[in-house]
């Protein structure tokens, strides 16, 4: 759980001439960037989104609490759409997907600067490192890859492994009883072509195979589908 600043001593909180913001400044606490106020959260039934201030108790009651970048980032990753997804587009349901792109990038960088290693979609890390021009460019890669695999039987789309994690695709025929993990395709900012194939894994680890992009994946899909644990 992210650490929250403990309740201040009376000398900090009981001075009637200071409002909450002035008290925080006097205590040397940086004010919030305001990004949290723009992060919509899912309501209890998932039908509507509330902004963070609406979801918080009253500011007066908790004026001594200061938003932390790690906490705000965790809230930003919370999904508000359906619990299942059949395509990358269906899985884009959190604030990192529909919030203003620069706000998303700024909050991610604040979480990084706070010393955290926050989970984040591959495309956001790629934009942060200057490898992708925009979030939409990452979506284009995901959608093109999914379109190729959707045409071939046996490939299953897996929306996420956890909040902020990237989607991936598994080839179920490669799980023939000898494999501990089936052949899997992931997207990663650690490779210029972004597309990585993880061959079916047995007891002996097999290194990932980097591809130059979706076009090479299309050309080699029959070969990739033939890979089995030796």
Topology:
Elements: H1 10-13, H2 20-26, E1 40-42, E2 49-51, H3 52-55, H4 69-76, H5 95-98, H6 101-113, H7 122-128, H8 135-150, E3 155-158, E4 168-171, E5 183-187, E6 195-198, E7 209-211, H9 214-225
Antiparallel strand pairs: 1-2, 3-4, 4-5, 5-6, 6-7
Biased composition (Low complexity): 25-36
Region (Disordered): 1-20, 25-48
Biased composition (Basic and acidic residues): 1-17
What are the main properties of this structure?
2 domains; five-stranded antiparallel β-sheet; 9 helices; alpha+beta; disordered N terminus; 230 residues; 11% strand
Describe the fold and architecture:
- With 230 residues, the protein is of the alpha+beta class.
- The protein folds into 2 domains: 16-118, no CATH class; 138-230.
- Helices cover 33% and strands 11% of the residues.
- The chain contains 9 helices and 7 strands.
- It has helices at residues 10-13, 20-26, 52-55, 69-76, 95-98, 101-113, 122-128, 135-150, 214-225, and strands at 40-42, 49-51, 155-158, 168-171, 183-187, 195-198, 209-211.
- Strands 3-4-5-6-7 form a 5-stranded antiparallel sheet, with helices on one face. A two-stranded antiparallel ribbon has the order 1-2.
- α7 packs antiparallel against α8.
- It is elongated, with a radius of gyration of 22 Å.
- Residues 1-33, 42-50 and 55-65 have low confidence and may be disordered.
């Amino acid at each position: 759980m992210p650490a929250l600043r403990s309740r201040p001593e009376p000398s900090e909180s009981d001075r009637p001439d200071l409002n909450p913001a002035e008290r925080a400044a006097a205590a040397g606490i940086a004010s919030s960037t305001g990004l949290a106020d723009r992060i919509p959260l899912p309501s209890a039934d998932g039908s509507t989104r509330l902004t963070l201030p609406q979801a918080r108790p009253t500011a007066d009651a908790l004026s001594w609490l200061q938003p932390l970048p790690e906490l705000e980032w965790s809230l930003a990753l919370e999904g508000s759409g359906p619990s299942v997804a059949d395509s990358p587009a269906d899985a884009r349901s959190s604030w990192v997907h529909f919030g203003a792109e620069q706000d998303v990038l700024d909050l991610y960088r604040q979480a990084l600067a706070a010393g955290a290693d926050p989970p984040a979609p591959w495309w956001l890390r790629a934009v942060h490192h200057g490898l992708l021009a925009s979030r939409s460019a990452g979506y284009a890669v995901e959608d093109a890859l999914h379109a190729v695999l959707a045409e071939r039987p046996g490939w299953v789309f897996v929306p996420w492994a956890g909040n902020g994690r990237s989607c991936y695709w598994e080839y179920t025929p490669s799980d023939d009883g000898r494999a501990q993990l089936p052949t899997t395709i992931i997207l990663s900012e650690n490779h210029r072509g972004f597309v990585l194939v993880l061959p079916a894994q047995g007891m002996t680890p097999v290194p990932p195979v980097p591809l130059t992009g979706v076009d090479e994946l299309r050309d080699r899909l029959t070969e990739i589908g033939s890979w089995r644990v030796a």
